[in-house]
Amino acid sequence: MPEHSTGFTGAVPPTPRGPENWQRPAGPVSADAGGQVHFPPIANGLDYLLSATEHLTPDPVSERALKYAILHLAAGAEVLLKARLQLEHWSLVFKDPGQATRKALEGGTLTSCTPQETLQRLRDIAGVVIDDKDMRILTQLAQHRNALQHYGLTGPTATVGSVEARSAAALDFLIRFLDEELLPALTAEELLAVQDEMTIIRGKLESIESFARKRLKRLRAALEPVRANTVRCGECFQFALVIGGPRPRCHFCWSNPPLAYTLALHALLELGRRVPDAAFEHVLTGSGSLGERCDRCGCDTVMHGVMTAAYDDADGGLVALCFFCAEVSPTKPTCLVCGAHFEPGRSELGCPSCVRESEQQ
């Protein structure tokens, strides 16, 4: 298998700048006695998103849960948007950047820009792509939060469906925003510090029905051309994990695990193969493989009996799929005795070794 990076090198950048020369927030990254790394703005924003998803997942969702989902989602959005603005330059989070001081920033005494000003500065100064539809969604979320704080959950937009739809739309944007604009700026240590929260949030996405419906509808056009090499994601369980390259990517929950991990998880969850702990460890360390050799790319990454998003097509069915180069080919039958895939010579129901063993008995 070609060498590929896991994305976690453990190296700390020598300068306080992230991708494309983003300015990192003022002050060094700190660590407590236990070695836990802190990156307050993003960690704080993720905590709000985690709370929002927890309030949206019960069935049915109570009025109180909806209220706090909106409040915490809006708070999380404001924190994360300003975190990206601060990556551009710390003075931009001030109401008047011309009056910005380090003392006010570090002491938390600043008067910060409004949500609308934050969005405008992200587009006009930081060059972040936020289309008009997402601008309306985030602006309405902030307005809804303000109304809720002063008047409670009342009015024509206070229905469960309306609140869930509004929250789902905002959450859809914020997950993309995190993945594209904030997480790439973190060091390996900072990524590890927020990994648990991101894993929990991704795990809850699938249970938020309104989010799932909206996101899958949005992704339909993008996923249609790659249905033949799209499989079910092992983290969110949606058919949105596009296979190909060293790190397959789920377009639903934005996870992009290393290829070896994807192979092992797919074998375990989707194909029902028993994967001993020792074998799993070998795969993850790159010293073993659960797949067969691919004739096209030469990698040991071919899985048989794979169900892709194209399974329901008239000429579709289970296929053999190379998880590295995305080559699709006819799948081999499974031996009824040992479970291995084999190339049948006639009409055997088992692999050659099992057939020979049976004939000798």
What does this structure look like?
The protein is of the alpha+beta class and 361 residues long. The protein folds into two domains: 19-205, no CATH class; 221-330, no CATH class. The chain has eleven helices and nine strands. The protein has helices at 40-56, 63-88, 102-107, 115-124, 132-151, 160-182, 188-205, 209-223, 259-269, 277-284, 352-360, and strands at residues 30-31, 37-38, 230-232, 239-242, 249-250, 292-293, 300-306, 319-322, 328-330. The strands form three sheets. The chain has a four-stranded antiparallel β-sheet, with no helix packed on it. β3 (230-232) and β4 form a beta hairpin. α6 crosses α8 (209-223). The longest helix has 26 residues, at 63-88. Residues 1-39 have low confidence and may be disordered.
Unreliable residue stretches: 1-39
- Kindly report the average pLDDT value: 76
What is the molecular shape?
elongated
Strand content: 5-15%
Radius of gyration, CA atoms, in whole angstroms: 24 Å
Total number of strands = 9
Jot down its keywords.
single chain, 361 residues, alpha+beta, 4-stranded antiparallel β-sheet, 3-stranded antiparallel β-sheet, 11 helices, 9 strands, 8% strand, disordered N terminus
In a nutshell, what does this entry contain?
With 361 residues, this protein is of the alpha+beta class.
